[in-house]
Amino acid sequence: MPITQSALLDAVPTGLFIGGSWRDSSDGSTLAVEDPATGRTLAHVADASVADGRAALDAAVAAQSSWAATPPRERSEILRAAYERLTERAEEFALMMTLEMGKPLAESRGEVAYGSEFFRWFAEEAVRIHGRYAVAPNGATRLLTTKQPVGPVLMITPWNFPLAMGTRKIGPALAAGCTMVVKPASQTPLTMLLLAELLTGCGVPDGVLNVITTSHTQDVCEPLIRDPRLRKLTFTGSTPVGRMLVEQSAEQLLRVSMELGGNAPFLVFGDADVDQAVEGAMLAKMRNIGEACTAANRFYVHESVAEEFSGKFAARMGALTLGKGTKKGVTVGPLIDEKARTKVTELLDDAVARGARVLIGGEPQRGAGYFFQPTVLVDVPTSARLQQEEIFGPVAPITTFTTDAEAIAMANDTEFGLVAYLFTRDLDRALRTSEALEYGMVGVNQGIVSNPAAPFGGVKHSGFGREGGFEGIEEYLETKYVGIAL
Ligand code: NAP
Cys-Cys link to 68, which of 177, 304, 315, 486 (CB 3.0-4.6 A)? Predict the structure, then answer.
């Protein structure tokens, strides 16, 4: 029988998970978690103090050497079990994400499928951590290299993908033999708490995974980042916060991975299959209600297909159904909060004031929850703020271009460099454009690039480091070299 909302909220742990047990915060305080579709409180979770944060790191440090010494096959089996249990409990996790984050259930199910794959992928990687043995060029010594876990890791994750942004870090860290303190976003902590419980049931030893929820985010995290026992910081979130954390991490010269903001261009060339481009645009724009770092933020369409593309895209956007993500037939959920909705409104108003035309949508929805209509704008000038800032909402601004060089120049005219999309039937154009785009990832004739087997990450102000693929585990490993004289 499917789990009900109230049964799920009664069952979800709400404490801090430290050293293998659940506890209240040291001062007994809690923080409220809200349903963005109704504005109502879903649950209260423990609000960690600075002392609780330190206790979590103490536990991670204490468990590090034994976890690093655990046979890779054992670590692999734990991850495999995590993949299987998460798949079995997909409905529970999907419902939890829809409740605390707002996305429609179908999308939450998609995130469970995507997020669980990181456990399967890194279960397979855990037993393939290799070194090498080589003869030095002078023939006199032997060069032995091996990989060792980096050490205790602090993981800070955002609210937009409450599960997958965690599993993308936890999977490779467990595989590599690192212990960790996870701090999920304070707006969506419940999914991570449920995951901690699941992972414990799969055999993750006490202290290897610790989860702290807090509203005193900076006060709790900064001492951990400056603690010499921590060896790595991995962060997914906004660029300004990431930049500040990089500065803090300089004191202990931490290994750092930064998955930051995006401003993805979506290029449709004159020879593109327009229907395929519209399909890709729906995915690239509307996945996660537009609240994704990978969301298409700017559409550059060749003048010869602009009218056809805009018309078909607007028709698809207009056919979407807004509502609470748990309701049948709903395809667009609410934004995360009023601040997010205000920002979307401001960016849209700015574009219109500069000459953009609204083809469809264009309004926040009245009533409870933070809904905003799916919107398509045309004739958007390059001076509009939304060409430079992340919209993080269901607004698609379209600008036309004439030459390939013009499209590439507009696409690269940003401080960000996470992902770009391009649509063309010409292989030569696809390859040349992919090479010219200053981005960590490029989607060719597809509106989604996320794949656990591929290295996800950006360049420029979108950060550094890669998650997933063969590269993902390297972020949690150090190379040790041993020179042997013969
Ligand atoms: P955010 O405000 O930067 O928050 C992200 C995380 O950082 C949250 O856990 C937050 O905790 C924490 N945080 C905030 N201030 C902090 C501080 N001073 N010290 C330590 N931690 C701090 O970002 P967001 O609004 O949640 O997420 C949206 C952003 O994430 C967008 O820019 C999006 O592009 C980016 N993102 C990037 C990727 C990627 O892979 N490149 C993926 C997803 C999202 P609290 O919740 O307690 O504030």
Answer: 177
**Cβ-proximal residues to 319 (8 Å cutoff; 6+ apart), any chain:** none
Structure tokens belonging to residue 130:
């290799």
pLDDT(2) > 90:
no
The string of DSSP codes covering 367-407 is SSS--B--EEEES--TTSGGGTS---SSEEEEEEESSHHHH
CB 38 within 8 A of CB 368: yes
Active-site residue numbers? 259, 293
Distance 291 CA to ligand 1 centre (A): 12
Residues in Cβ contact with 5 at an 8 Å cutoff, skipping those fewer than 6 apart: 95, 99, 326
Distance from residue 364's CA to the centre of ligand 1 (Å): 24
The pick from 47, 156, 342 for probing ligand 1's pocket by mutation, whose C-beta has the most ligand atoms within 8 angstroms, reads 156
| Ligand 1 nearest atom to the CA of residue 336, by list position | 25
Grade residue 478 by pLDDT with cuts at 50, 70 and 90: very high
Segment 244-298, tens digit of pLDDT: 999 999 999 999 999 999 999 999 999 999 999 999 999 999 999 999 999 999 9
Paired with 25 in beta bridges are: none
Backbone angles phi, psi at 331, to 5 degrees: -115, -10
Q: Give the CA angle between residues 445, 447, 449 to the nearest 5°.
A: 100
Q: Which residue segments constitute the domains of the chain, with CATH numbers given?
A: 5-261+462-485 (3.40.605.10), 264-415+419-451 (3.40.309.10)
Sign of the alpha-carbon torsion through 102, 107, 110, 114? negative
The closest-lying atom of ligand 1 relative to the alpha carbon of residue 221 is 20
Q: Are strands 264-268 and 296-302 parallel, antiparallel or unpaired?
A: parallel
237 CA distance to ligand 1 centroid (A)?
3
Say yes or no: CB of residue 259 within 6 Å of ligand 1: yes
